[in-house]
Amino acid sequence: MKLIEELLKQNLISQEKAKELQMQAEKSGEPEEELILKAKITPEEDLFKLKAKVLNLPFLKLTKDEEIPLDVLELFSEE
User: Fold this and answer.
1) Of 15, 20, 21, 64, which residue is least crowded by CB atoms under 10 Å?
2) Residue among 10, 62, 58, 59 at smallest CA distance from 36
3) Residues 31-44: pLDDT tens digits?
């Protein structure tokens, strides 16, 4: 629930909305990213910038022409 907590810390959602999202995540088993995007709380790019911050990783925006070598991709978890 780190993303939901971070949205709450940044006052992007209310305490009530945070509880609602957390309950939905627990009930449905859906990743919190999906629930946040479905609720249209923040644009996708902003959400993944936030996720990079929470995970203490740099955010990189790749263009469609850029390819990442497979050996580099294998260094990251699917999350």
Assistant:
1) 64
2) 10
3) 999 999 999 999 99
